[in-house]
């Protein structure tokens, strides 16, 4: 059985963005974005596990009313991540897993240059070379928490998930996540992505600040309002670039394992 893809790719368009490299189609960006988002998996995975009970509250640190900050340490350096209060279920779940030591010694198991770095599969702990990774989790999903103010700029922390064919509510994986690398965009591209997103979210529009972030820092707007963004890197953004500079095997696993450890900053 093929590895379950939590993040969908279409003719490599998400890696290099429509209008730069990738498919190099003359069709509108919105058409290419549609292919990127709706590409079916070759082998249907089993249905997603049941969603986590949204009423569950975890023992959070005393600063939870502020943004929760988490340090992620890798062999290539450290990142400080801030979790958003606007996505409380994802925030609380991530904090619980960090407190439980769930992420310690897991790998960034799927790293695609110009797109993202993905981790959080518990099967990646002590995984043998060539082992199939990307299907593990804690046994539950989290309801989507889309927010037009929280988009896929470079450094965004977002939840991976199963594809729409088996996951029409777009529920997030209980543990797998990714950090956006992406690339720079221009206004014409952003206009086309905006038009596509508006098909399902008519009131959606990029703010001037969001446009500036995509044009100066980069990101992957083709995933906006389709995957839950629940935090961002506030220190150590270059670590994403360092991880994605590592050679990878077929399947996008780094040839030299990149392990992580996490702790909540007091």
How is this fold's topology laid out?
Blueprint: H1 13-16, H2 29-38, E1 68-74, E2 77-83, H3 88-99, E3 106-112, E4 116-119, E5 141-142, E6 156-161, E7 172-180, H4 187-198, H5 208-216, E8 229-235, H6 238-244, E9 259-264
Antiparallel strand pairs: 1-2, 1-9, 2-8, 3-4, 3-9, 4-7, 5-7, 6-7, 6-8
Concise description?
The chain is of the alpha+beta class. Helix content is 20%, strand content 21%.
Structure explained in plain terms:
With 266 residues, the chain is α+β, with helices and mostly antiparallel strands. It contains six helices and nine strands, in the order ααββαβββββααβαβ. It has a single domain, classed as Cyclophilin (Beta Barrel), CATH 2.40.100.10. 20% of the residues lie in helices and 21% in strands. The chain has an eight-stranded antiparallel beta barrel with strand order 1-2-8-6-7-4-3-9. Helix 2 packs across helix 4 (187-198). The radius of gyration is 17 Å and the shape is globular.
How many H/I helical runs?
6
Q: Please give the largest β-sheet.
A: 8 strands, antiparallel, barrel
SSE order = HHEEHEEEEEHHEHE
Looking at CATH, which topology would you report?
A: Cyclophilin
Number of strands: 9
Strand percentage? 15-25%
Compute the average pLDDT: 83
Largest sheet: spatial strand order: 1-2-8-6-7-4-3-9
- What top-tier CATH class fits best? Mainly Beta
Number of domains: 1
Superfamily (CATH H level) name: Cyclophilin-like
Helix content: 10-25%
Measured between the Cα atoms of the first and last residue, the distance is 43 Å
Provide the structure class.
Answer: alpha+beta
From the spread of the alpha carbons, the general shape counts as: globular
CATH architecture: Beta Barrel
Low-confidence stretches: 1-5, 7-45
Structural Rg: 17 Å
């Amino acid at each position: 059985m093929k590895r379950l893809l939590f993040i969908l790719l279409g003719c490599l368009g998400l890696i290099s963005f429509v209008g730069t490299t990738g498919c190099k189609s003359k069709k509108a960006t919105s058409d290419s974005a549609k292919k990127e988002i709706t590409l079916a998996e070759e082998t249907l995975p089993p249905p997603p596990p049941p969603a986590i009970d949204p009423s569950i509250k975890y023992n959070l640190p005393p600063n939870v009313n502020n943004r929760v900050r988490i340090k992620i340490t890798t062999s290539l350096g450290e990142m400080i991540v801030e979790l958003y209060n606007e996505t409380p279920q994802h925030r609380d779940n991530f904090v619980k897993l960090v407190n439980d030591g769930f992420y310690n010694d897991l790998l960034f198991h799927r790293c695609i240059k110009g797109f993202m770095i993905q981790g959080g599969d518990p099967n990646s702990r002590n995984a043998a070379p060539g082992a199939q990774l990307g299907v593990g989790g804690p046994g539950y999903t989290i309801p989507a928490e889309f927010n037009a103010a929280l988009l896929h700029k470079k450094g965004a922390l977002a939840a991976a998930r199963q594809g729409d064919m088996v996951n029409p509510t777009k529920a997030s994986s209980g543990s797998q996540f990714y950090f956006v690398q992406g690339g720079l965009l221009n206004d014409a591209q952003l206009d086309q992505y905006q038009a596509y997103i508006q098909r399902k979210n008519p009131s959606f529009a990029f703010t001037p600040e969001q446009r500036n972030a995509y044009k100066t820092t980069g990101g992957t707007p083709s995933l906006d309002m389709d995957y839950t963004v629940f935090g961002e890197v506030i220190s150590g953004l270059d670590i994403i670039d360092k991880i994605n500079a590592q050679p990878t095997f077929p399947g996008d696993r780094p040839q030299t394992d990149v392990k992580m450890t996490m702790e909540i900053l007091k």
